[in-house]
Amino acid sequence: MSRIRYGGDYNPEQWPEEVWAEDRVLMRRAGVNLVTVGVFSWAELEPREGEYEFAWLDRVLDGLHEAGVRVDLATATASPPPWLSARHPEMLPVTAEGVRLHPGSRQQYCPSSPVYREHAARLVRAIAERYGSHPALELWHVNNEYGCHVSHCYCDVSAEAFRRWLVRGYGTVEELNRAWGTAFWSQRYGGFEEVWPPRAAPTFRNPTQLIDFDRFSSDELLDLHRAEVAILREATPDVPITTNFMGFFKPTDYWRWAEHVDLVSNDSYPDPADPRSPALSAMSQDLMRSLAGGRPWLLMEQASSAVNWRAVNAPKRPGQMRAWSLQAVARGADGILFFQWRQSVAGAEKFHSGLVPHAGTDTRVWREVEALGAELAGLSDVVGEAPRARVAIVLDWDSWWALEQEATPASLLYPNLLFAWYRPFFDRSLLVDFARAGADLSAYDLVVVPAMHVASPAAIAALDAYVRQGGRLLVTFQTAILDPDLHVQPGGYLGALRETLGVRVEEFAPLAAPELPGAEPPVVALAGSGLDGSTATQWTEYVHVADAEAVAMFAEGDVAGWPALTRRTLGEGKAWYVATLPDEAGRDALVATLLAEAGIEVARGARPGREVLERAGRRFAIDHAACTVEVEPASRR
Ligand code: GLA
After folding, report:
1. Whole-structure pTM over 0.90, yes or no?
2. Higher pLDDT, 313 or 603
3. Which CATH number fits domain 391-598: 3.30.420.10, 3.40.50.880, 3.40.50.300, 3.40.50.720?
4. CB 541 within 8 A of CB 508
5. Is the pLDDT of residue 1 over 60?
6. Which of 175, 203, 215, 354 is a plausible cystine mate for 170, CB 3.0–4.6 Å?
7. Is 145 a catalytic residue?
8. Which residue's CA lies nearest to atom 11 of ligand 1?
9. What is the CATH number of domain 5-155+215-382?
């Protein structure tokens, strides 16, 4: 069935049954063909331990089926019922400061809790048995936004699970002592039983302990997901499985997760008041296509208008919901879904918009919902085929975790650096894939590696091979500083990439703002080919050129005369190194040079603020300021 999926989270348990009949009528009017049911229904489905009440959900699913609406059925494990923690308070999560989080909100479970795991598994089994062959079932929706509120738990149960994870990884405590560098500050462990999660401590915690706890926490949540997947696979081997990702979400390494879903899906809530939003959501959409291995994905949640969780919640502008939805379609989405179908009248999200607003259907939001449904129905021919990117940016969760630790040379924010380099491509309507560190890059004409702080030998070898095979590579400052144990390799930074790039870094010189109210961080002028008139921001450093050309220099301050941008030619390949974050104009100029070298042209009619994208024979021209989109056959260019 090839039609673009359209719909959203449907929570009928919040409404009397008379409303369900009206829901079905309105869903048909809007062209809704897929709804996500049951995400937060555990307490309704199992009101008392072991006693299931499925009759209401039977009626919901039967009704949807009759109305021709398919179901993305949730496993309902995202928010355990109060009775569970009342009986087993040890299943509640604990923060690094030792605060236990209580029911009355959602997601209050320790990911390692055997109590939670056992009860969740039983519920999933019961749901799979009851609905596995229901004709409305199209997709399983495992849990919801894993780690969204509780990504790391520091309780005693988690401590035990962390130790088991460490034993599996290190084997002996001597090996852990080596990797963690415990000779520093008298941290040497005599046995695994002495190790704790990195709970609140007097000052900086052990960096390798911290990153191992990040890795463990991502793995532990993934383990929950996999346990549910195993149950669903056994019951319904042919029903595809998803869990909703959250774009660039730090706690979960989605490269590892993507291997365990049949369909990648994403939740996306860009701020309508933020002019960067179209570029930020494009970046998240490009990540989803990349996680899906270049295949289509599903926009599982977005808002029809305002959310309710920012300090001030701007509504979407007229036309913006359509523009942002079609942007997702153009970047590979096979479905456009929302949180949620009907705006709640009670609970913590009553001010979050819905497809059916509080004010009813005589509203601009509803009219836009109906129009979008009709328009998507006419775009079915794009389904199944995703557009291809020629540019890739390397994205690495280890680097994210390490770069943003305490006690680093400067407080750099990894997603901001990714975005800084994504932006010049977005402004030219060029799709970007995100690539996993160590992946084969030969499909790309240009690869950018922003601040890949942690580099394994495999990650370095992949970059080196890419250049030697004729690729064009741009590596930025703070790449390959640490090995996966977070140790420095002495002899000048950049590790084995020194060979590829032909440079070595002697010393960092980040640009520090004086600690005075309102003080702006300094910038440093740049000079040299293409970068004259631009400035270096955030970072400078002392770089030695061994076997490369210095293309641009720092022109001011203590680093004046030191290289800021270098290039090494290796056969057909080129390896660039940039020792700073050039300002926007500088990044734009550098990307223009790299694109010209790579022979990549900008789509006709594209300019900053006007995206022009092609997918499966359709051309989407999106004017983000005007919130308008022209969709036409690609051949009419
Ligand atoms: C997330 C959740 C939804 C809802 C929305 C509100 O995406 O999955 O249940 O809370 O946020 O924006």
Report:
1. yes
2. 313
3. 3.40.50.880
4. yes
5. no
6. 175
7. yes
8. 339
9. 3.20.20.80
